[in-house]
Every structure is written in structure tokens, then in C-alpha cells.
Predict the structure.
Amino acid sequence: MSTTLITDIDVLVTGDAEGTVHRDTTLVIADGVVAGIGADCPAPDRVISAGGLSVIPGLVDGHVHPTFGEWTPAQNASGWVRNYLHGGTTTMVSAGELHVPGLPFDELSPELVTGLAITSLRTTGRVRPSGVKAHCGTVLLTPDMTEGHFDRLAEYGAGHAKFIFYDWDRLSSGEPPRYVRWAHERGMTVKMHSGGVSRSGSSRVAGYDLVAAVSPDVVAHISGGPIPMPDDEIRRTIDELPGHVEVCSSMNYRATAVTVDRLTERGELHRLTLGTDTPGGTGVIPRGMLRNVCYLASMCGMDPAVAVAAATGNTARAHQLDVGVLAEGRPADLLVLGPVTGSRAENVLDCFALGDLPGIAAVFVDGEPLVLGRSEQTPPPSRRLTA
Ligand SMILES: [Zn+2]
């Protein structure tokens, strides 16, 4: 068994929906999973002093658009996954491989979308680009799919399906709820594009009525990606539908405040999930998830530890993933981070409350330090980690 002891942690945020925080603590990792918080480890194979820095779970970006490994045609950029790792993202979930050059959004066929998802599952999804847990192969649901298409997707391990280019004139056929049922029977989650059209220009406006007719597991970018549904429909979606709602870096900032206010009033912030909705028209944003947490905690009145949960445990749970929470037996995917020189913050919670980007000193995935010393994407934290 290989063990790592991380000592001298100022603040550890577990990523659970309650916003649990441990202070002045340690973390024990054994064989890639969390073995204890505040526990001792008699003869660890490796000791890392966090030097008074903080620890949070690795960020879970619930909305990315992968295409071919590290290359994204959306911004003709390479190396984006590695850059996101250095921005703290250890897990990402595809919201559809829709940037494949030449993909005919208006003429998608069941064979094409199924083949595209399987191709992604068997290429980018088969490896971990730069060590990031990339869940690829999210099928773009299209009319006339049969249960056989869902069987094939499940056979290749597809975990997610997405409504975006669906022809909503077909809603009365009963097909969309049937797709949701077929997906659920195979353990897949269903996400649905909401609001106005996306960069592709061909998704139809999806407000409360359309979203309610489908009742997806996750309402994608409820506060805009980039154009949100009207405010009263955001509130109605939160009030009347049971699923998770997602806020993305492609957001309308005002509409995000509307979303968070409603969830707060209802005591339902555990339903809030986060993503970047990138690469795409919003760009490639390695620090996007950290910036989302900063915005929620500094401008939307969220408790910083609960905002961290939105970026980690909530998003993982919504997509049926075992990551995002630091607790015994869970994967040791975590960040060591803290205030950057010049910030008034004392620890990572202060950083988020003030809206100051924290600096990352280490990124662990399954207990292995993939980044150690300093991130290539954030300024260094003012305190130093010693390994
Ligand atoms: Zn998207």
C-alpha cells in the first residue's frame, strides 16, 4: 500500500453540499483514496507539508465540449485540457462533441450522433488527457433514435445524453420523455440546453415549457449559455422541476444572481452545479471554474464552502460520478491552494469571499501529484508547500 500524509493544512473544504470545513488538519491518502481527515499516519511513504495552505476537492467542470484530445477546433487551440488541470479541474463532463468540423446540426441522424459519441468514447474518452478524468461521448439526442441506439451507447460505456439540436416540433410525439426513460434505464444522465440559441445558431429557444416537458436531470446553463430564459421562467424552473440546475462561465451574470437568490430562498443550493461551457464561443478558460466560485461567493452571497461544493460535490453527484467530495474511501482528487501575494485573504475561503483568485500549489488525481510546486495557470500562492 502506498500512503501520503499531507500536514499543516489551514482549511480543508470537503465539497459536500453542507459546506463542511475542517481547520488546522491533516489528510491521509492510501492507494489513491482518502483514508482519513485529521488522522495520523505512522509511517507514510510520502509527507507533504501544505505550509498553511488550504485543500479543496479537484474541480469538476460539468460542461465542456471536447473534440479530439487536447485540440479544440472551437478556438483552434491545443493543450487546453492540460491548462484546465493547472487551473484546478481534475474531472470534466462532455456536454456533447459538437465542434467536430463540418457536423451538420440541421441534418443529424441517429447513426451519426451514436457513431460520434462512440468515437469520442473510444478515442479521447479512452485515455485521460493530461491525467484529467474526461467523461466523453455525450450523445446529441436527435429524432428517430431507437432503444437499440441507447443499447449501443451503453455497451460502450456512455454515461450522458444531451438535448440541444433536437427538433422540438416533435415534442408531442412523446419521444423526448421516452429518451429520458431509456437513458435512465441504462444509468445515463440527461442534460438539456436551456435559453436562447448557442454559437452554432441552430438550437431552438428553450424556456420553462420546453424544459418542463423533458424534465432533464440537469438544466444546462440556466443563467445563460450565453442567453438565459426570462427571469420568471428561471424561478419557475427552480420551483417546479426537481433536477439540478447548472451555471456556466458562459453565463449572464445578472441571471446567475437571480438563480442563486431563488435557490437560496428555497434552501436548495445543493441543486446548483457548475461548468465552463468551454471550449466554445466563450473561449478556453483554464481558470474558469475558480472564477465561477469567486463570483458566486463574492457577488451572489454564497457561503464560500457551499460555492466550492457547487464546483465539486454537487456537479459530481448530478452526473453520477464518485469524485468531488473529500471523505474516507473517495478518490483523492484535490487541490492545495491559497492566497496570492497582495491578496487580503488568509485562506482559500477568504479568497473566494473577496473574489480574489487563489494560487494553486498542487493538483492531485487519485492521490498522485500531477502538479506540484506551482501551477502554470495561476500566480503562486504566497505560502509554500514542501514535498
Ligand atoms: Zn455547451
